Amino acid sequence: MVYLRLIFLLQILQSVATQGKKLGKAVYVLSVDELGGKVAHVNYVPASMQVKGLDARNWASEVAGILGGKVKYRMIKFRANLISLSG
User: Fold this and answer.
1) What pLDDT is attached to residue 77?
2) Rounded to an integer, what distance in angstroms lies between the CA atom of residue 14 and that of residue 51?
3) According to the model, what pLDDT value does residue 87 have?
4) pLDDT over 80 (residue 7)
5) Average of pLDDT values for 59-86?
6) Domain map of the chain by residue range?
7) What is the rounded average pLDDT of the residues 45-53?
8) What sign for the dihedral angle of Cα 63, 5, 77, 45?
9) Cα 8 off chain centre by
10) DSSP per residue over 3-23, as a string?
11) Where are the beta strands (DSSP E) in the chain?
12) CA dist 21 → 17, 25, 47, 83 (Å)
């Protein structure tokens, strides 16, 4: 049940990221799963910003570090991550 809830949550976040992709905008969306102690987050970086040095993978790693967790799950379509929070 928890796994299905997380998959559903990531799908919602990816839907938001898709809207950013359609607009050609960099997007970062987060959602907290308080019951599971996790933060799901998805980002998208358009090619126009990648050439300027913005990297989705590095962005996700920086956010994970700020939140005090580490990336445990990644999806390929967008940079989707699930962070387990420590503490």
Assistant:
1) 47
2) 23
3) 37
4) no
5) 63
6) 2-85
7) 92
8) negative
9) 13
10) HHHHHHHHHHHHHHHHHHHHH
11) 27-33, 38-44, 69-75, 79-85
12) 6, 6, 10, 23
